[in-house]
Amino acid sequence: MRLIITTLFLLATCTDAAVAASLNITTEHSPPSSMRGADGVITGRATDKIRELMSRTGTDYKIEMLPWKRAFMMAQTQGQTCVYSTSRTPERESLFKWVGPTDEAEWQFWGRADHAFPLNSIDDARKLRIGTYIGDARDEYLRSRGFNVDAVSNDLVNPQKLLLNRIDLWAVAIRNGAAVPGHPDWSDQVVPLLVFHRVKVYLACNPSVPDELIDKLNAALADMRRDGSFTRLERKYDQAGK
């Protein structure tokens, strides 16, 4: 009887460990960081790094591509869920356990090419109307610092609002190697004006993810940097979107 109980306990322990090591990972469509290939498989520079991390640590996982707000909210509210590529800011620090950084980004103010106001520092933007994206780190960052933000559910509405003079600036994130936002209808009329912040981005995990797994993933990422795998994956997408 004791042998049966011991066996059942060990089986339960192994099952719990297997469940704990399985992750649901969410992301958004954001080339070349994350995108869906012609075969339907999610790929991209950040995606390939995440897949390599999972492989090196023997972690079972699945990746879902969703609108950013939903992807981010799932990682906040659902156990064993992580989201990438997530800007690590003071406002978000306690919400997640962090693996990374996996990339870096510049936060830029874009505006009309014919703008008439001076913009030499972020403080010059305090009296201006700034277009942001609901649930995005730039919206949180500017809002928490008292800037006049006007958030929308679709970020590509913002350049249209600029052209209609409904906002003065658009807060844009440009990751390393990413194509700058542009569209034939406004590519010459909406231009970058100022880099107002630089931020590192991470795989952000729900607090339910075990510390042991977070440590293993960070150690694997450090190994990827040491053995050149990280750089190789970076260079694979150097020309993407250009």
TrEMBL record:
PANTHER family hit by this protein: PERIPLASMIC SUBSTRATE BINDING PROTEIN FAMILY 3, SOLUTE-BINDING PROTEIN FAMILY 3_N-TERMINAL DOMAIN-CONTAINING PROTEIN
The record's InterPro entries line, in alphabetical order, gives: Solute-binding_3/MltF_N
**Gene3D superfamilies (UniProt xref):** Periplasmic binding protein-like II
* Native organism: Duganella rivi
Keyword DNA repair in annotation: no
Q: Which residues form the signal peptide?
A: 1-20
User: Domain Solute-binding protein family 3/N-terminal spans what residues?
Assistant: 26-237
Name of a matching Pfam family: SBP_bac_3
Name assigned to this protein: Transporter substrate-binding domain-containing protein
Q: Which residues form a coiled coil?
A: none
For this UniProt record, give its keywords in alphabetical order, as a comma-separated list. Answer: Signal
